[in-house]
Amino acid sequence: MGHCLSCFKDQANADIVTTQRKKDELREIVTTNQVPTVMVSDYPQEEPLLHNNQNNINSYRNMQNANTVNSYNEHSTGELTIIQKSHTNSDKILKPFYQKLPSLPRTMSSISSNESRISENKINNLFDLYKDSLEDAILAEGIENLCNDLQLNPDDFKVLVLAWKLNASQMCRFTRQEFVQGLKNLKTDSIKGVQSKLNEITADLTRDSENFKDLYRFTFKFGLDVSIGQRILPADIAILLWRLVFTNNEPPILDKWLKYLEKNPHIRGIPKDTWYMFLNFCEYIGDDLSSYDDNEAWPSLFDDFVEYENDQMNQNVTKSDMKIED
Fold first, then answer.
1. Spatial separation of the C-alpha atoms in residues 51 and 37, rounded to whole Å
2. What CA–CA distance (Å, rounded) separates 77 from 20?
3. Under a CB-based contact definition with an 8 Å cutoff, are residues 230 and 224 in contact?
């Protein structure tokens, strides 16, 4: 009807003998690097090892040779347990694993652009150094102080470039909005940074004709007195601005053109279309007025200038002939 105590005792003795035999077999495996024909794993495998599978046996042996020998401890229960492998083996196994991990994204501070690091507070503080005491704008005196800190003369070409980049609405005046937004666009918030940017932009203007055209068109608007609704540039201001904007790339005809304006005080102003077309005029005729065609849709002021210059040339030729005859 059941198991008596002697049966349990006999079974226990048999288990002890069996356990001792298994322990001896396992020690023999570790010592001789032999592999049992069947290995049972507690974890599922995609392809379970089969009896007499030579490939699996070889794979197991290779793993045994590559790893350090496992340490074994016998607990009081007599059972044999496998101790964790050495850190050296762990490193060898984990290294290729970490190499396959995607790189962690950098922090926003490390990938942020230079623009995001520009401090609007610094720009406002810089503006406050030069602004007028009564008006929230940098006026003539403040611009002069700013130019001194930039190591520039107020009539320097780079000052015009700065006004262009600030999109200043008129001469001798930078509003807070123009100054702050302009420096943000330049991606700088310091005097040293402004100096560096002006050097870069000035060098680029000699190579980029489209940028120069934009600067040239801005210069006309910059010279107008918007406070009185001025729409025509006074001739004396136009002469100064033409000399300034062509500082680094003066066209051959410029000097004759400006002298013509100075000799004719009845020319009181330069309209917008005349200012704009003068750039095309310089490109079209080069240094020789002989290619000028008065049938083209040029402003009348250009017709008068070419006629004047041709008369001067004819007079010079006549005088030369007279000297030869004498």
1. 6
2. 12
3. yes
- pLDDT at 177 > cutoff 60: yes
Residues 308 and 295: their CA atoms lie apart, in Å, by 17
Residue 170, classed as helix, strand or coil, is strand
Q: Is the pLDDT of residue 283 over 70?
A: yes
Task: Report the distance separating Cα 114 and Cα 249, nearest Å.
Answer: 32
Burial level of 136, CB count in 10 A (0-12/13-18/19+)? Answer: exposed
The model carries a pTM of 0.63
Show contacts of 276-284: CB within 8 Å, 24+ apart: 276/217, 276/220, 277/302, 278/242, 278/302, 279/213, 279/216, 281/253, 282/251, 282/252, 282/253, 282/254, 283/251
Which residue stretches of the chain are H helix?
A: 5-32, 54-66, 87-100, 108-111, 120-130, 140-149, 157-166, 176-186, 191-205, 209-223, 235-245, 254-263, 272-285, 300-325
Contacts of 118 by beta carbon, 8 Å cutoff, 6+ apart: 183, 184, 187, 188, 189
Question: Which pLDDT value is given to residue 263?
Answer: 94
